[in-house]
């Protein structure tokens, strides 16, 4: 079992300091999962995860607040084929550890946090800092270490500025890892327009391609990315995201990347209301900018239908046009008094190129069924 040194602070120091203030809020989420995927060598899966969370708010005056949040990701699982072979895993890691200063129009947050923005819902070119998977009912994702500042103008314009350090994993549609010993810097400005909003984002990081075998390997590759996105609420919801990524060293077909997403959202007046979201993503990469020699197209659709006050049915479908692969996910959710139950069925191809992968929400190849029970306190 791997135990991060940060977790010692989380489980011991934080409760001792904050309990003395007598204003601690403690809650948590416990989830238990079992699944069966017959096409896999280890076809059965049992797992559990507990995310305890401590939060604390200190009002400084009528408009200013100092907040603290600390949570852990405590998980254990076993993959096995009955009476034959098995693989066990267990981890205790920090999930969120941050402190935030906020006022009416400004906030500054430092630590291990989730940073999320953009207009798209499923296939997200500017999901730069998290791994949220639309198929995950709990929407779990690893955070990033950094500093985030946001200022909100009275006309709903807002400005984001961030500085990250110590992060190396891929996130979203990242093609290569991050070199964690160099800081990442960026910002975003979001401005209202008639019936919607539009935004411009920029990010600079140092990438690391040493773990890739099919491109030139470098420890440090300066990388710049710029994106524009917009969203409008007219008769239907409409949005787009477009991102361009440039690496300053020649790393083959990953030197330049372009991603463009177009989406629509509409609720059909059928029964309790059937919500439909459809998106199409174009991905291109090459040694020259906007070459469009290596391209991929993915279409995704989500359906959500409330069966009643306590029951919901939803599905997510991906289609890769190049490989003609289909990925399907169906989820039935029922709310009990203190817990939520999920029955999920899925089919995934052997590989899912171009689709975000989230290590906290395992996707096995082939058909399968998953049961999950979640208790929030």
In short:
With 377 residues, the protein is mainly β. The protein is built from one helix and 20 strands.
Element layout with pairings:
Blueprint: E1 2-3, H1 6-19, E2 24-36, E3 44-59, E4 65-81, E5 85-102, E6 106-113, E7 144-152, E8 158-164, E9 177-178, E10 184-193, E11 196-208, E12 221-233, E13 237-247, E14 256-268, E15 274-286, E16 294-306, E17 311-320, E18 325-335, E19 339-348, E20 366-376
Parallel strand pairs: 1-5
Antiparallel strand pairs: 2-3, 2-20, 3-4, 4-5, 5-6, 6-7, 7-8, 8-10, 9-11, 10-11, 11-12, 12-13, 13-14, 14-15, 15-16, 16-17, 17-18, 18-19, 19-20
Structural description of this entry:
There is one protein chain. By secondary structure, the protein is mainly beta. Helices cover 4% and strands 58% of the residues. It is built from one helix and 20 strands. It has an 18-stranded antiparallel beta barrel. It is globular and about 50 Å long. It starts with a strand and ends with a strand.
Number of strands: 20
> Averaged pLDDT, please?
91
The percent range for strand residues is: over 45%
Structural class: mainly beta
Number of helices: 1
Strand-and-helix sequence, N→C? EHEEEEEEEEEEEEEEEEEEE
Features of the shown structure:
377 residues; mainly beta; 20 strands
């Amino acid at each position: 079992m791997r135990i991060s040194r940060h977790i010692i602070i989380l489980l011991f120091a934080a409760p001792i300091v904050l309990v003395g203030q007598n204003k601690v809020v403690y809650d948590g989420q416990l989830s238990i999962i079992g699944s069966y995927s017959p096409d896999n060598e280890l076809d059965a899966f049992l797992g559990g995860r507990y995310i305890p969370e401590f939060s604390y708010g200190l009002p400084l005056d009528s408009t200013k607040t100092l907040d603290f949040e600390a949570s852990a990701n405590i998980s254990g699982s076993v993959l096995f084929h009955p009476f034959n072979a098995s693989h066990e895993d267990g981890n205790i890691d920090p999930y969120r550890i941050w402190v935030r200063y906020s006022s009416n129009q400004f906030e500054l947050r430092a630590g291990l946090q989730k940073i999320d923005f953009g207009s798209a819902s499923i296939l997200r070119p500017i999901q730069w800092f998290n791994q949220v998977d639309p198929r995950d009912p709990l929407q779990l994702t690893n955070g990033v270490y950094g500093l985030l500042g946001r200022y909100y103008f009275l006309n709903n314009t807002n400005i984001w500025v961030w500085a990250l350090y110590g992060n190396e994993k891929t996130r979203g549609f990242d093609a290569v890892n991050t070199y964690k010993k160099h800081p990442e810097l960026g910002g975003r400005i979001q401005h209202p327009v008639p019936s919607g909003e539009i935004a411009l984002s920029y990010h600079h990081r140092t990438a690391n391609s040493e773990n890739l075998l099919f491109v030139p390997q470098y420890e440090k590759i300066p990388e710049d990315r710029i994106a524009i996105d917009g969203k409008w609420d007219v008769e239907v919801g409409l949005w787009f995201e477009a991102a361009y990524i440039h690496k300053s060293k020649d790393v083959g077909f990953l030197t330049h990347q372009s991603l463009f997403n177009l989406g629509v959202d509409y609720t059909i007046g059928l029964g309790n209301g059937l919500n439909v979201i459809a998106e199409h993503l174009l991905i291109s990469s090459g040694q020259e900018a906007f070459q469009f020699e290596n391209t991929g197209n993915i279409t995704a659709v989500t359906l959500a239908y409330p069966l009643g006050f306590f029951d919901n049915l939803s599905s997510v479908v991906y289609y890769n046009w190049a490989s003609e692969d289909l990925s399907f996910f169906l989820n039935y959710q029922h709310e009990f008094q203190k817990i939520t139950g999920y029955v999920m069925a899925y089919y995934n191809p052997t590989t899912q190129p171009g689709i975000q992968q989230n290590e906290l929400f395992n996707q096995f190849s082939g058909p399968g069924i998953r049961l999950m029970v979640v208790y929030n306190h």
